[in-house]
Model the fold of this input.
Amino acid sequence: MSAEILRATASELGERIARRELTAVEVTTAFLDQIERVDDDVKAFLHVDRAWSLDQARVVDARLDAGEKLGPLAGVPIAVKDIFCTQGVPTTCGSKILEGWLPPYNATVIDRVRNAGLVMIGKANMDEFAMGSSTENSAFQVTGNPWDLERIPGGSGGGSSAALASFQAPLALGTDTGGSIRQPAAVTATVGVKPTYGGTSRYGVIAMASSLDQPGPCARTVLDAALLHEVICGHDPMDSTSIDAPVPAVVDAARSGDVRGLRIGVVKELGGNGYAPGVEQRFREALDVLKAQGAEIVEVSCPHFKYGLGAYYLIMPSEVSSNLARFDAMRYGLRVGDDGVNTVEDVMRLTRGAGFGDEVKRRIIIGTYALSSGYYDAYYGSAQKVRRLIAEDFDAAFTQVDVLVSPSTPTTAFKQGERTADPLAMYMSDLCTIPSNMAGNASASFPCGLAPEDGLPVGFQVMAPVLADDRLYRVGAALERGLEASWGGSLLDQLADSDAGAYLGVRTDVATPPLAEPVEASDAREI
Amino acid sequence: MALSPTDVARLARLARIELSDDELARLAPQLDVILDAVAEVSQVAGPDVVPMTHALPLTNVFRPDVVKPSLTPAQALAMAPAEEDGRFRVPRIMDEEA
Done:
């Protein structure tokens, strides 16, 4: 019973809960039990509170029993990256400076998720203030990649991606500033979407770089991501950069997956030297799958993408140095050295010295430098010009093609500790994802196979024009359908049924027969 | 271009971050490498390229000037590191000699 619930897609669970074949409490209990079973090993969650989650589930059950019509995800559990403010529930952003902080309000995205009847099952681990590509910069714990617990689950949203891939949650929320949704999705064989900038509200999301940050859905299937996308997207007056326009028809696109006649541009600059052979091989095979379904594949040049990483590592730290000035030890959070002798400046310095980790300090200092008088034009000003050139590359490309594609990240999951002493090597993980943050267009990562050399997941990135988020799902659904037909199931099914995934306790191919009603189960799968 | 430990110490002071000698020794060379790697950015764009400050074109947004529910003083103070008489208590702002 439990394995069957844990392996089901979010849309299946939502259907069965809506039909009252399953209750939100049953489903939530199954996932809470899975967290208890595996999270000592995976370490995806920073905060789990059974009573909190079960109370939410009971409320949803009562509303559904009363005949209320909630959305298609009502009663489905969701893991929440610890960057989202959750009223009265610990929110650390992976930092010691916020340890024990209870936000006085909810992020807009959190309110939307609650109104749609989703059940928050825990706060997921992340790199401190979302700065990193491995989740090793969390001040609290290092999360394992469910495919190999000694490897990284990506970052900064490694808790979210690991929770999905270890069947501890069917859905998760992430944020993407330079790839923090897409790169973790790529290395765990999950789906991650960065909506168009302004498509989802940033209100109540602890800011890293405000002109780049964007919340988005994380899921195990393309349709599940689209259903969550629809819940969290849309105009919010509380975010002055929120787009007041209709949300693209992402769910329809995910259900259709029709790519006939779609022009797909392969970005010439995102490949070659520095890309693992298995990543390039699976990427090319995925192109063939799309071609077989009627898409047209062409090569496109985006000559300024190669400067994206450098420009990003000036613009982002500049915004970081300004945004993180709010952690001043005065109104909330850690305070160190308040001994009656130290001045307010001493206390700020001591608190920030003790409360921030290395990567946060590095970025604040780089940003302070890039914005300082005499260097501003050479660094921040130049980077903003490069940002314009990248956006113009996208504009030019989208006159020729409907979407652009590339590998999501140059390599598969690396070993924990492998890049921690070399920040530049760590930054390379975001090489392919950064351009879309700079230009603000929609972008996503979909699973496209396991690299032959190490058996680890590879991600396929799709980039669509501003407000054409639906095209991501059209391509993602075509890819998922084509690839899973050849694999005989999803990559996560392969993990779940393998010896390497035995510790997850969700095998359905052997010994323990499912206890659940097989009739409903097969019904649900037709959806 | 080189960022010396002295430069890093000065920047850390500006950013109100206390760095130990160990941290300075560890971070300064890393920061120098990072800055060196991003320096090429200044060679890319000509003077005619207009800097882009934001991902999308934005216009200022106004809301009606009406009173709406907001945090109560108790809620605002609930997470304060120190509180006195319904206010945030902060360390003294002047040095002894000031």
About this structure: Chain A has 19 helices and eleven strands.
